[in-house]
Amino acid sequence: MSILFSGQLNKMRFHNSGSEFMIKPSYYLAAQSYEANLNEAIGKKLTIAYGGKITCISCGKETKKSYGQGYCYPCFISVPQTEECVLKPELCRAHEGIARDMEFAKENCLIDQYIYLALSGGLKVGVTRYHQVPTRWVDQGANRAIKLAIAKNRHTAGLIEVALKKILADKTNWRKMLMGNDEQRSLADQKKQAVDYINQHGIEFTIAPDDEYQIEYPVASFPTKIVSKDLTKEPIVEGVLKGIKGQYLIFEGGLVINIRKHTGFHVKLKLDI
To answer: In Å, how far are 187, 190, 193 from 197, measured between CA atoms?
Structure first.
C-alpha cells in the first residue's frame, strides 16, 4: 500500500485532457509540493483515513467544525469568498460599491457573468464568472452545458437567474447526477425558450454564443444506488474506486464521498498497488 496523498483536503482540481468543447477532466489533489493524480487510482482499492484534524483554508487555524466548505467561523463571516452573493447572486451589491472586499469584488463580481443551462441530474440554470468556464460545470458534474446570456455584473446575472427559476430548476440533483442519468433534450431549444422568457423582464443582457460543451468523466461504471459517506461519522472510507464525477469519488457498491464538503480535513489517501 502506498500513500497517494497526505495533507489538507481542498476541492479536486483538474487538467482538461480533451478540447474546449469536449472536456475530459483529469482530476488531482494538490499538496504543498506535488499533485496526486486521482484518475490513476480508478480500478484500485483506495482508502481515505481522517485523523480528526481540520484547519481553516483561509487563516490556517485549527477548527472543530468546517464552515462554508473549509473555513473557521470567524473567516466564514468575514472573507469575501463566503459573502452571501456567492450563493445568491441577486443579493450582490458590489455595483453599488458595497462588498466585504472591493478589490475581490472587482475581480469576481464586477466582471462578465454567464447565465447558463446545464444537464446535471436534470436541466438547471446557473450563474458563473466568465473565467470559471468550464470549471463550474465540471464541479457540478454536468454532462452538457450551454451559455445562455452574458450580464455585466453578478447582481444583474442574479436577477436573470431569479426570473428563470420560475420555469427552471437551479439545484443539482446530485444523486441522479452520480447515477449517470440525464435527459437527452436539446439545450439549444431550451436556450431559445429561456431567452424568450427573460426578454419579457426588461433586464439588460447579451445573448451568449450557441456553442455546446460536453464533459466526459473518468467513470468505469455508474452506481445504481447511492450511499453517501461523512468523515466526521466514519473516519475511514475504503473500496475500489470506480470513478470521479463533479466533486465526488465513486466507490464500488455505490459508496460516494463529496471531497469539497470535506475541505480543510487532514487525511491520508492510501492506494493498494
So the answer is: 15, 11, 6
